[in-house]
Amino acid sequence: MTRTYSLVATALMAIAFGSAARAQVAVGIRLTVAPPLVRIETPPAPPGPDCYWVGGYWGWEGGHHVWVAGDWVTPRPGEVYVRAHWVREGAEWVFRPGHWAPIAPPKEFVSVVVRQVPPPPRVEVMTAPPSVEHFWIAGHWRWEHGGFEWVSGRWEKHRAGFVWAPAHWVHAGAEWRFAGGHWQKY
Questions:
Q1: Which residue from 14, 18, 71, 175 has the highest number of Cβ atoms inside 10 Å of its Cβ?
Q2: Which residue range is the domain that position 74 belongs to?
Q3: The dihedral formed by the CA atoms of 68, 74, 76 and 79, expressed in degrees to the nearest 10
Q4: What single-letter DSSP state applies at residue 48?
Q5: Nearest residue to 115 via CA among 146, 82, 91, 94
Q6: DSSP characters for 7-53?
Q7: pTM for this model (two decimals)
Q8: How far apart are CA 163 and CA 140, in angstroms?
Q9: What's the structural domain count of the chain?
Q10: Coil, strand, or helix at residue 157?
Q11: What are the pLDDT tens digits along the chain (186 aa)?
């Protein structure tokens, strides 16, 4: 099978995950061959209640796909980490590198602020992905009826022009603020 790709631009992008930094070289990669199915990952225990899981992805290195494992990230107030992913554009697959983006909640979003510390995120067992166009949305704790309730993770299909802002809790002084858990424009 012949793999055709054109490198539109090459850039070195350091991506901070917690205290460690990872780099990905491959901005603007276009391929005519789909990436493999997303790997099923079993995340280690979360480092704290204010962390959220960013799943791994298939990078492109040395003329072939290379798996880059997921990691827990510590949130930044008002921002969300958008995971690296491949998007189908016609007959091509385009790589979108991971990055921090401002959270843009929908108009109907209701602000949730509590003083109780959320439990650490659960480590979930992922099922097989339905297709290469799906990605895993990790589960999270939501505040419901005066307490925390677990919302299980699920596979979701990428939406053109949108990114998923993962649901997570942000520690702010004596309060915990809920953020994310919605689609937003790319």
A1: 71
A2: 5-185
A3: 40
A4: S
A5: 146
A6: ES---EEEEEETTEEEEEE-TTEEESSPPPPPPP--PPPPSSTT-EE
A7: 0.67
A8: 18
A9: 1
A10: strand
A11: 333 333 332 222 233 333 333 334 445 799 999 999 989 898 888 888 888 888 899 999 999 999 999 999 988 888 888 889 898 899 999 999 999 989 888 888 888 999 999 998 888 888 889 998 888 898 999 999 999 999 999 999 988 888 888 888 988 899 999 988 899 887
Residue type, 112: V
Q: Compute CA 22 distance to the chain's CA centroid, rounded to the nearest angstrom.
A: 15
Q: Which two tokens stand for residue 91?
A: 């007959």
3-state secondary structure of 51: coil
* Closest to 100 in 3D by CA, of 133, 78, 132: 78
CA–CA separation, 164 and 97 (whole Å): 14
Token pair recorded at residue 113? 């602020």
Cα 65 from Cα 31, distance rounded (Å): 11
